[in-house]
Design brief:
The complex is a heterotrimer of chains A (about 290), B (about 280) and C (about 280). Chain A is mainly α. Chain A has one domain: MetI-like fold (Orthogonal Bundle). In chain A, about 85% of the residues lie in helices and about 0% in strands. The radius of gyration of chain B is 23 Å and the shape is globular. The relative contact order of chain B is 0.12. Chain B folds into two domains: about 30 residues; about 220 residues, MetI-like fold (Orthogonal Bundle), CATH 1.10.3720.10. In chain B, α5 packs antiparallel against α6, α5 crosses α10 and α5 crosses α11. With about 280 residues, chain C is of the alpha/beta class. Helix content of chain C is about 35%, strand content about 25%. In chain C, β4 and β5 form a beta hairpin. Classes of the chains: A mainly alpha (about 290), B mainly alpha (about 280), C alpha/beta (about 280). Chains A and B meet through α1, α2, α5, α6 and α7 of A and α1, α2, α3, α6 and α7 of B.
């Protein structure tokens, strides 16, 4: 690693000299590049594969009820969640998650932008927003149940209410960080307030808004499970707790794996969306820089 | 990251003290008073049914009673125990493993895929396993908190260790600073800003997970008390809301303490130099 | 006595026997040093192509050359921070395999080389600790070396609370703290303003006398090289090779005004500029 860094520093320092003597044909270097990419992918994946292999091998002959063989868990996962009765639970969970998260995201950005433009309201409410942000959201689940019962509304409300704060506060903070020159430019161009917010402030704050949205997603998933766990008749959380309470440890493990898959997939989707959004953002910035 | 926000309300509303200072705090008090008055008025007018949402006065008086009871303080103690021990274990492991993984390119690339996968697993997924293994105990809470804290933090430690400036590294080499001394005096301080960012998130996540473990895992603490109050029916709802307020205040307190500690440890860093100016 | 030197530069680019000119054994000797860096996608780039010279004990040698001449690479090889691809670097008679204890290095970028989490005193102390200096003798050593660079009162400050020139003086103090035999400096004054720079040049001449240290000083500034050096080693553009070694026969102590007004100074300067710019 040290050698690498030294070489990098050296070549960067001398790069300006421009007398690089590239050896080998383009074809050879393509092959080399491809094998390097493959090598990198392999170093990233081997430990992961090894861990799964170890779990598989270690649990293969397991007679413990708590830790059933991974092969059986995977079979249960398929039978229950892919083709079996638990599909409905998965569907209901995802529905609440999507709805609650969407509300939290939109409201977070909207209210954040509104508070940014209303300085006095922002000043007056900031300590209370902060309180709600650090309040560990799961404590609200019992309270929301007493008001909304144990139906779908309760779950959506709790997810939305808990997940709104990271997005809201990050939006506010990101907008406050937008540099004054950009704002003055927009004003000089005769843009209206709302237009300024949409066309200048929001894009400039985008990286931080996205960071807030990512936080909100994690909070949403936690609250989805907690709300189903505490009081519900459906969903992944309900499935896991029911399985656990009826000593169906295979079912419990399949639920856990399902939850890991949901978490991983949601994160993956988010990263894909983020890359797209920030690509647009950086693209726009580059154009702005040229103009 | 919401880190900047967590740094405190100061970030939300900076400005020089003076006339604006009085105005700002006046406004804030007015908002608080108005919210409390509205809450009381809605309850009194019967617009919020008392059996669903208690009145402000009932909640505040429940809070007053709680503050003088041993139950509240025992619950706060149990919650803090899970938070602190779990954070210490998860944070310690993250620093050791993250540093080791960050020191070699191969180790880093091998570990990062696994870490990124585990980071996306909702902590709550392993709650049933922890419950099966340890039941509703402090150990269960600690294990969950440590697990939740570990993954996001280990990534930050890796990044921090790998971001060591090549000139700082060369300097350490020419000064003959090696081994444990190099790690403690050069690598760790230079990674500190990254670790602090990770810890700031971890402090909040640890409290959330701790309370979830109490709320649905049954470990003793504020979460369990809230659930007990909910199950006792409408007459105990003021107590439930009082506990919720306490949980929020605990969140504010811990985040505030972290900000203080960060300012103290990281006083040398660019972002804290203004405050440290008079120390020199 | 000083007017005639530039016409016949003394010293040879390579192969000459340095002991003829310098009565003492060299502190550091480079012999056929080549350094190549691998390039992305294969191939390699030669940064140094066959560099041979040595530096005598007590000598102040400046290395000048156009940018991209591999000056920094050369210094890294001298410090043991980088290993030559071929050829040897000998420090006090033994081939260099790692960073030797008797070498101090001052980097150009003091902002990155001074540790901001340590005070001025802490930065110097770290160097002493790392070389195993006993705890009870360290405070005196720190005070002494800080006084030498004129920072006796700055020990408790943090580097970032000081001006750029003061920070570079801290870096010099830290490099001298362990009383190295050889002090390597990589464009140390390139990031400070002109006035500060003159002060630092005089400072380094003074502490070099005080500590009796041999100095290899890399710079792209011809004036600075002539003003400071006993000998100037000129590198060519990439890949760097030694094009000429020039003895600077200006009298010491040197003075920013008197020395630079000297005709000989101007002659050296002109000669060196010609070498660096035509290549």
């Amino acid at each position: 690693m040290r050698g690498e860094a030294a070489a990098a520093a050296g070549s960067a320092q001398a790069g300006s000299a421009g007398s690089s003597a590239r050896a080998g044909s383009a074809r050879a270097s393509t092959v080399r590049a491809a094998s390097r990419v493959a090598g990198r992918a392999a170093t990233r994946a081997w430990l992961f594969a090894a861990l799964i292999g170890a779990w598989w091998a270690w649990s293969a002959g397991s007679t413990s009820v708590y830790f059933p063989p991974l092969a059986k868990i995977v079979r249960t996962l398929w039978a229950q969640w892919a083709v079996g009765p638990a599909r409905a639970q998965l569907g209901s969970s995802l529905e609440h998650l999507a709805l609650g998260y969407a509300i939290a995201g939109l409201a977070g950005i909207g209210i954040g932008a509104l508070l940014w433009s209303l300085r006095y309201l922002r000043e007056a409410t900031s300590p209370y927003l902060y309180f709600l942000y650090v309040l560990p959201a799961p404590v609200l689940v019992p309270a929301v149940i007493t008001v909304f019962g144990i139906g779908a509304a309760m779950k959506v409300v709790i997810i939305a209410f808990a997940a709104i704060w990271p997005t809201l506060l990050n939006t506010l903070d990101g907008m406050r960080g937008v540099d004054a020159v950009k704002l003055d430019t927009a004003r000089a161009l005769g843009m209206s307030g709302a237009r300024r917010t949409l066309a200048v402030v929001l894009p400039a704050a985008a990286p931080q808004v996205v960071a807030g949205l990512r936080n909100s997603l994690q909070v949403s998933i936690i609250l989805m499970v907690v709300s189903e766990w505490v009081a519900s008749t459906g969903g992944i959380g309900y499935y896991i707790v029911t399985a656990q309470e009826s000593f169906d440890y295979l079912g419990m493990w399949s639920g856990i794996l399902m939850l890991a898959i949901v978490g991983g997939a949601a994160n993956l989707l988010f990263v894909l969306a983020e890359n797209r959004l920030l690509y647009w953002h950086y693209g726009a910035r580059a154009v702005e820089g040229r103009a | 990251m919401a880190g900047a926000v967590l740094a405190g309300e100061g970030r939300l509303a900076p400005g020089a003290p003076g006339r604006g200072w009085g105005l700002r705090y006046g406004l804030r008090l007015a908002v608080l008073a108005a919210a409390l008055a509205l809450w009381q008025a809605l309850s009194a007018a019967g617009l919020i049914p008392g059996d669903e949402f208690p009145s402000m006065t009932a909640t505040v008086s429940a809070l007053g009673h709680l503050a003088m009871s041993a139950t509240l303080w025992a619950a706060v103690r149990d919650t803090l125990a899970g938070w602190a021990i779990g954070l210490a274990i998860g944070g310690g492991c993250a620093i050791v493993i993250g540093s080791l993984a960050g020191l070699s390119g191969f180790a880093y690339r091998s570990v990062i895929g696994v870490v990124e996968f585990f980071k996306t697993i909702p902590v709550i997924a392993i709650l049933p396993i922890a419950l099966v293994l340890w039941g509703a105990t402090l150990t269960m809470k600690i294990a969950l908190v440590a697990f939740a804290v570990f993954w996001p933090l280990v990534i930050q430690v890796c990044y921090g260790v790998r971001s060591l400036d090549p000139i700082a590294r060369d300097t350490a080499r020419v000064l003959g600073v090696r081994g444990a001394r190099e790690f403690l005096m050069v690598i760790l301080p230079s990674a500190a800003p990254f670790i602090a960012t990770g810890l700031r998130v971890s402090v909040a996540v640890a409290l959330i997970v701790d309370i979830v473990a109490e709320l649905i895992g049954g470990g003793s603490g504020l979460g369990a008390q809230i659930l007990v109050a909910e199950n006792s029916g409408p007459s105990a709802y003021p107590v439930m809301y009082a506990y919720i307020l306490v949980a929020g205040l605990l969140g504010v307190l811990l985040a505030g303490l972290f900000t203080l500690a960060e300012g103290w440890v990281m006083h040398w860093h660019e972002s804290h130099r203004m405050a440290a100016g008079h120390a020199g | 006595m000083m007017g005639q030197a530039p016409q016949q530069p003394v010293g040879t680019p390579r192969g000459g026997d340095p002991a003829e000119h310098h009565p003492y054994a060299p502190v550091v000797a480079l012999n056929g040093v080549r350094k190549a860096y691998p390039l992305r996608g294969g191939g390699q780039r030669l940064a140094l192509g066959d560099v041979t010279f040595d530096v005598a004990r007590g000598e102040f040698a400046c290395v000048v050359g156009p940018s991209g001449a591999g000056k920094t690479t050369l210094l890294r090889c001298l410090a043991g921070l980088a290993m030559p691809t071929s050829g040897t670097v000998e420090f006090e008679g033994t081939p260099l395999r790692q960073v030797p204890a008797g070498v101090g290095v001052v980097f150009q970028d003091y902002g990155r080389s001074l540790f901001p989490w340590l005070t001025v005193r802490g930065n110097v102390d770290l160097a002493l600790k790392a070389r195993g200096i006993a705890r009870d003798s360290r405070p005196a050593r720190i005070a002494e070396v800080l006084a030498s660079v004129g920072l006796a009162d700055a020990g408790r400050a943090y580097p970032w609370q000081l001006s750029g020139g003061m920070q570079q003086r801290v870096a010099i103090a830290r490099a001298l703290a362990c009383r190295p035999d050889l002090l390597l400096m990589d464009e140390p004054f390139a990031s400070v303003d002109a006035q500060t720079r003159f002060g630092l040049e005089d400072l380094i001449l003074r502490v070099r006398e005080e500590f009796g240290v041999t100095v290899v000083f890399v710079t792209h500034d011809i004036d600075e090289a002539v003003y400071l050096a006993d000998r100037v080693i000129v590198l060519s553009a990439s890949p760097g090779v030694v094009t000429e070694v020039i003895d600077i026969a200006l009298p010491r102590p040197r003075d920013q005004v008197a020395t630079k007004r000297d005709e000989a100074f101007a002659a050296y300067r002109e000669h060196l500029l010609g070498l660096v710019m035509t290549r």
